[in-house]
Design the sequence.
């Protein structure tokens, strides 16, 4: 038996307590699989770092610009017209002239405060970007879980039929050699066996793709094999049955991250507009300077300032563009909100349609179907029905089994679409 090494201590503890690991096969329930997904998915971890990046931008926006210190007018040698000055240290400095200045840029019109406000909205947007990314990735992950459950259940159905047909084929081969049955009946039975083998091969190829995607989402060893428990293949429909759809539509702004993002984008545009307006007011640079031996005073200390004169550039274009951006963000917010309300209604109606189909089929229909197949098999073995009648029922059985499995799959998928559309987990 190989030892499966999983990415984190947390993951190891979850698997050790909740699943069995046999020959690199990992048995997971939907709940445990999602726990590992949230802990180890690299895309989520990477996206979460954008929140830290945005928070760092707030820190940067709060920082004042550095002062500028400069030394100039420093002569390396004396000339014939040099006047003697007091020495700086020992005999050094009698003929040394130099100047020094210290400058500090001072933002005006509340630019720093407005930039901080912009970055704070940016940090809020980063949080909602992450939530929206998580929301969509969760639906992809859960649909993959459902697809794996569907694939596993489908494989079990066809394996069972293959085993029955293979047993019958072996018996028919012996009876054909004895001359008790015609070669035609044997070929017809063998053809059914080949059809099942072909279908199982297709199922296996689909499973390989699902396995690959699941291992990437869970960040598992490529050599591992994932099996999802069938116990929770049917979703808890009471959660959505007790839901007030009108309230969900009315409160969608509180749940959907993309709607919140659209609102924050409008706020961001408004803050950017205020900042661009502030930029038309020039900043001031304050200066303190010292000059040794370069003026009528041997040691000159002076103060000054500089400011741009807004004669030509008053930031007119950027202000106008920011103003249009505000109007654009308002329209985008209305569009996103309207689309979200439409999506939640569509998702709700789709779930209700599939739920009604599942209810009409009935909980005990699958049991009756399996029992009837056993009866037909027994009747065929006792030669009470013909091979064609038996094979026709097997085909009808498989069609109905696939309808049941498809309905269960659609129940899960439609529920996830509703969760995604509403932004609610319905826990």
Sequence:
């Amino acid at each position: 038996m190989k030892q499966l090494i999983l990415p984190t201590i947390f993951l190891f503890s979850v698997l050790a307590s909740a699943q069995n690991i046999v020959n690199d096969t990992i048995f997971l329930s939907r709940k445990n699989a999602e726990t590992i997904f949230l802990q180890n998915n690299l895309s989520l971890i990477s996206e979460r770092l954008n929140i830290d990046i945005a928070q760092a931008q707030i820190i940067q926006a709060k920082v004042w610009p550095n002062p500028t210190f400069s030394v100039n007018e420093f002569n390396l040698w004396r000339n014939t017209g040099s006047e003697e000055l007091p020495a700086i240290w020992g005999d050094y400095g009698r003929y040394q002239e130099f100047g020094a200045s210290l400058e500090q840029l001072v933002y005006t019109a509340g630019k720093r405060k407005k930039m901080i406000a912009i970055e704070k909205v940016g940090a809020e947007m980063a949080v909602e970007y992450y939530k929206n990314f998580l929301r969509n990735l969760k639906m992809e992950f859960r649909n993959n879980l459902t697809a794996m459950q569907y694939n596993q259940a489908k494989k079990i159905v066809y394996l069972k039929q293959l085993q029955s047909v293979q047993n019958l084929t072996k018996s028919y081969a012996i009876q054909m050699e004895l001359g008790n049955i015609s070669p035609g009946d044997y070929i017809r039975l063998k053809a059914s066996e080949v059809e099942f083998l072909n279908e199982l091969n297709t199922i296996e190829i689909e499973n390989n793709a699902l396995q690959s995607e699941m291992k990437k989402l869970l960040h598992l060893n490529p050599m591992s094999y994932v099996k999802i428990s069938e116990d929770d293949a049917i979703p808890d429909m009471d959660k959505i049955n007790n839901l007030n759809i009108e309230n969900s539509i009315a409160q969608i702004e509180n749940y959907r991250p993309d709607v919140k993002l659209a609102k924050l984008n409008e706020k961001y545009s408004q803050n950017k507009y205020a900042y661009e307006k502030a930029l038309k007011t020039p900043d001031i640079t304050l200066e303190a300077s010292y000059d040794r031996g370069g003026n009528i005073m041997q040691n000159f200390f002076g103060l000054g300032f500089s400011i741009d004169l807004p004669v030509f550039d008053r930031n007119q274009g950027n202000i106008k563009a920011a103003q249009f951006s505000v109007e654009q963000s308002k329209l985008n917010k209305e569009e996103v909100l309207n689309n979200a309300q439409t999506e939640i209604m569509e998702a709700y109606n789709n779930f209700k349609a599939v739920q009604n189909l599942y209810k009409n089929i009935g909980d005990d229909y699958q049991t009756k179907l399996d029992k009837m197949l056993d009866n037909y098999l027994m009747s065929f073995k006792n030669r009470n029905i013909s091979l064609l009648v038996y094979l026709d029922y097997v085909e009808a059985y498989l069609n109905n089994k696939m309808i049941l499995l498809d309905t269960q799959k659609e129940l899960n998928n439609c529920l996830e679409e509703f969760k995604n559309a509403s932004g609610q987990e319905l826990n």
About this structure: The beta strands are 21-22, 25-28, 68-72, 98-106, 225-228, 284-292, 299-307. The CA atoms of residues 51 and 126 lie 5 Å apart. Confidence is low (pLDDT under 50) at residues 1-22.
